Amino acid sequence: MRLVMISGVAALLLAACVTAPPRSEALDQARAEVANLTQEPLAQQAAASDLVAARDALQRAEAAQQHGDSLELIDHYAYLALRHAQAGEARVSETNARQEVARAQTERNRILLESRTRDARIAEAQAQNAQAQAQNAQAQAQDAQAQAEIAKSQALSAQQQLADTQKQLADLQAKKTDRGVVVTLGDVLFDTGQATLKPGADLVLSRLATFMAANPQTRIIIEGHTDSRGSDDYNVGLSQRRAQAVADALAAKGVPQANVRTVGRGKAYPVASNDTPEGRLQNRRVEIIFSDSSGQFAQGTDRP
Predict the structure, then answer these.
(1) 10 Å Cβ neighbour count for 32?
(2) Terminal CA-to-CA distance of the chain, rounded, Å?
(3) Cα–Cα dist 107/101, whole Å
(4) pLDDT tens for residues 202-242?
(5) Residues 151-208: pLDDT tens digits?
(6) Which of 60, 79, 97 is the last residue of a domain?
(7) Theoretical Cys-Cys bridge with 124: which of 32, 53, 147, 210, CB 3.0 to 4.6 Å?
(8) Is 71 inside a domain boundary?
């Protein structure tokens, strides 16, 4: 009886060895490659036919393994599945590369548009960096040529802006002095002894506000001056109120208050003799001193 049982167990083990599917490293590799392709977001879009063919070949390989077919047949189908999966992954990679090129080109175009208001070197570096991520050396050379044209255009634009600024200052009858560019507003803007602007002052202040809007980095100092009549305290107060009246009018026209400083100089700095009506008229004035384009004033602007 014991011999019969041993013989039965041996027969079962022998049958299991006969029917166990043969192991195939090629099939394991094909499964992993097909799984990788299946997980690619662009697989259905860029490599649908390759994915179908890879899955079909993989199913054939697995079926051959389950049926106990030869390892050669299993490996053949596994090889086909692997090659289809690899071809699909190559198509997905190619599609990803094209999309990256398109994204880089879009980014480059955005940078080129913004570069009109930026320094030409920074714009060129940003555009070349975006181009370097997406295109080859030939495309980079084309981009450098395009950037040179932009730099030339920006240089012309800067020249035109400088000419416009000079014309605006000329319209304001500005003068260059040791203290910087100065615009003098005569006493005709105020009634005698008053700090309220006359309606006629609106034109010149509108021009000044337009200039400040076109040159947002420019700052100004508004100085009020009087003739010698009256006490020092009275003249300092009057000159300060007149300077502040001009500052308030500019603020109403959109000039940022942070860009404006007011000073009442009183009668301390005459530009003509106070012995004649004409000289006193010249001394009753408001002077506007301009900083440079970076907001810096000339040395000696602040009087003691």
Answers:
(1) 12
(2) 127
(3) 10
(4) 898 999 999 999 999 999 999 999 999 999 999 999 999 99
(5) 666 655 545 654 555 566 666 778 998 888 999 988 667 777 888 888 888 898 999 9
(6) 97
(7) 147
(8) yes
Long-range contacts of 93-102 (CB under 8 A, 24+ apart): 94/46, 95/42, 95/45, 95/46, 96/42, 100/133, 100/134, 101/134, 101/135
Whole-angstrom distance, CA of residue 223 vs CA of residue 243? 6
How many domains would you assign to the chain? 2
- Amino acid occupying residue 138: Q
Instruction: Tell me if 89 sits within 8 A of 33, measured CB to CB.
Output: yes
**Residue 28: which domain range?**
2-97
Residue 209 inside a domain? The answer is yes
**pTM reported for the whole predicted model:** 0.47
Is the pLDDT score of 293 beyond 60? yes
d(CA 270, CA 227): 7
Residue that the structure tokens 């012995």 belong to? 275
Classified as helix, coil or strand, 299 is coil
Residues paired with residue 261 on neighbouring β-strands, in sequence order: 221
Which of 97, 126, 146 lies at the terminal end of a domain, its last residue? 97
Q: Tokens 């040529």 label which residue?
A: 145
| Nearest in space to 286 (alpha carbons), one of 269, 304, 274, 303 | 269
Contact status, residue 233 vs residue 273, Cβ threshold 8 Å: no
| Nearest residue to 224 (alpha-carbon basis) of 200, 189, 255 | 189
pLDDT at 65: 94
Give domain status of residue 108, yes or no: no
Q: Which amino acid is at 18?
A: V
Q: Note the Cα 104 to chain centre separation in Å.
A: 15
Cβ atoms of 278 and 221 within 8 Å: the answer is no
| DSSP-based three-state secondary structure for 208 | helix
